[in-house]
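The protein record filed here.
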Amino acid sequence: MLMRMGSLLAAEANDKRDLYPHASELIVGAIAFAILFGFMWKWVLPRVGAILEQRREKIQGDLERAEATRREAEAELARYREQLANAREEANRIIEEGRKTAEQLRADLQGKAEQEARATVARATEEIRAERDRVLRELSAQVGQIAVELAERVVEKELDKTTQQKLVDEFIKQVSGSGNGKG
C-alpha cells in the first residue's frame, strides 16, 4: 500500500500544473513577505542601524584615542630626547668644569711647589750665609789668635787687648777684602 501511495504521490507531483505556484499561494506569500518586510523595516532595521551607528562611533572614538595616544607618545618622545640632550650637555659641562678645576688645582699646586722651592732655596741660602759668617768669625778668631801669637814671637812682647783687637780687625779686613787672604 505504501508503494501504491508513493506512486500516486509521484504521479501527482509530476503534473505540469504542480510545477508552477497557484495564485492563492502567491498572494499568501506576497502578504507574508510584506508583513515580514514591514516588521523588518519597522523594528529590525532601526536596531541594526543603531547597532551599526554605535559600532561606528566606538571605532571612531578608538581611532581618535589612538591618534591622541600617538601624539602624546610623540610628545613624550620629544621631551625624552630633549632631556637626553640636556643631560648630555650637562655631563659635558660637568666634565669641562672638572677639567678646568683640575687644571686650576694643578696650576695652584705647581705655583705652591715653586713658592716652597724658592722659600727652601732662600732658607738654604740664608743658612749658608749664616754658616759662612760663623765660620768666618771662628776663622778670624783663630787667625787673629795665630797672628797675635806670631806677632808676639816677632816682637817678643805681649800685646795688650786693644792693640790685639786692632791687629785682628785690620787683618780680617785685608783677608775679607782680597777674598784670598793675600791683600
Notes: The mean pLDDT is 83.
